[in-house]
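User: Design a sequence. Structure:
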């Protein structure tokens, strides 16, 4: 009997992680990616232990060590003065799974390299999922071709890892569109300077914040500045006009202005929000941003996608082992149930952080006082529920 075969739409962080988790459990996968190239400039990712453990379980510890930085903690600062509100130091040598700081493209390359070594994963680029039709023991999936020619492939199930503007989510009957939050994130990288600390620094100001941390094995600093915007633009990113960001940063502390002044090109992401999807319908499941886009104020979007991958792969392997092809819809339902509460909580906490980060005076005083009172231990305990997550395999 041939190995069970599933189709994953999208070769972003969520799609590649899903393919690897499935393949590791002996399930064959075809990953279909609409794009033909994978260049993603100027963007970093914080990968906390909750998803870091999944990556370690995929055997990626060493390649990630080569390209990442283990964070030594978090420093929260005031926008205008730059003075520190609270610091939360980590001891990376005492953490079994580091809090990793990575370039998105580096994490993507590590996952892609791993995918290419797996004989049971096939990657089809330049083809997008357009439609799907459920059959008695599987699903047939229509793809758009590079030269206008379509093709149809078959699998036991379809996993939509096709991001915020997910076509697969539409196919589940959920066409509620993402809504613009009124914020955009400007991202750039600059060369690291001697003495830069290997940690995350967060600057909080009224209706704005900035975050920066080292990436690329410590050679570069990733910077994200969030500001309000009148209009949104669909799509992954666009180039930013440096006069706008310079003006936005004019009231910031000198250290932040000096750091950002060395940035060459800025890329801008409009920030969208969307209700969580049902996450599963019949033989279709959704992972990552397709299921539950997360505002970047808790740095968890990619991490949640990686968690999704681990849980879905485990449940599919269990059901396929017991019930064969007939078990796929039940596995998808189990998955949606297993993930609903957690993804809703992470989405809500991210929104809450956004509101808190951007408070104006005098509410910002109360926020800073509360953060000070929490101190390093209180702040760290506050996120135990998030970072201590483990798939119950
Ligand atoms: C400013 C900012 C900072 C962030 N910081 C962090 C952070 O520090 N930590 C963190 O964990 N997360 C962070 N995130 C969130 C994170 O980037 C996303 O949640 C994550 O990349 C989503 O991955 P994904 O695989 O679900 O979707 P995507 O990365 O969007 O991938 C979707 C893929 O599907 C493809 N595709 C689309 N349609 C089709 C189709 N019809 N058929 C086939 N393929 C298709 C696309 O081309 C794409 O390759 C941040 C986000 C932003 C905007």
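Assistant: Done.
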């Amino acid at each position: 009997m041939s190995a069970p075969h599933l189709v994953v739409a999208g070769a972003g962080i969520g799609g590649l992680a899903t393919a690897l988790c499935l393949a590791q459990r002996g399930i064959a996968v075809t990953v279909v990616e609409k794009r033909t190239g994978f260049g993603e400039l100027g963007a970093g990712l914080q990968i906390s232990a909750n998803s870091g453990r999944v990556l370690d379980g995929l055997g990626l510890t060493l390649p990630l060590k080569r390209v990442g930085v283990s964070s030594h903690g978090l420093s929260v600062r005031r926008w205008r003065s730059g003075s520190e509100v609270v610091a939360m130091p980590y001891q990376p040598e005492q953490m079994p799974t580091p809090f990793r700081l990575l370039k998105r493209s580096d994490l993507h390359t590590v996952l892609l390299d791993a995918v290419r070594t797996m004989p049971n994963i096939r990657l089809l680029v330049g083809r997008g999922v357009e439609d799907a039709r459920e059959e008695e023991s599987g699903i047939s999936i229509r793809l758009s071709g590079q030269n206008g020619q379509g093709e149809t492939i078959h699998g036991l199930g379809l996993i939509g890892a096709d991001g915020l503007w997910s076509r697969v989510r539409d196919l589940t009957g959920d066409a509620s569109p993402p809504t613009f939050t009124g914020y955009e994130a400007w991202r750039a990288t600059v060369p690291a300077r001697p003495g830069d600390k290997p940690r995350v620094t967060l600057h909080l100001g009224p209706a704005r914040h900035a975050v920066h941390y080292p990436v690329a094995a410590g050679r570069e600093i990733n910077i994200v500045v969030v500001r309000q915007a009148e209009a949104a633009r669909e799509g992954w990113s666009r180039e930013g006009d440096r006069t706008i960001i310079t003006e936005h940063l004019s009231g910031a502390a000198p250290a932040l202005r000096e750091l950002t002044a060395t940035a060459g090109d800025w890329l801008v992401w409009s920030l969208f929000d969307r209700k969580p999807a049902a996450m599963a319908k019949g033989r279709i499941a959704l992972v990552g941003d397709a299921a539950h886009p997360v505002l970047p104020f808790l740095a968890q979007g990619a991490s949640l996608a990686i968690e999704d991958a681990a849980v879905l792969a485990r449940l599919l392997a269990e059901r396929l082992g017991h019930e064969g092809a007939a078990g796929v819809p039940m596995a998808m339902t189990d998955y949606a149930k297993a993930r609903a509460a957690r993804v809703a909580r992470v989405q809500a906490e991210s929104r809450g952080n956004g509101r808190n980060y951007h408070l104006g005076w005098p509410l910002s005083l109360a926020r800073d006082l509360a953060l000070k009172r929490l101190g390093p231990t209180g702040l760290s305990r506050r996120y135990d529920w998030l970072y201590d997550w483990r798939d119950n395999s």
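The CA atoms of residues 67 and 217 lie 5 Å apart. The mean pLDDT is 94.
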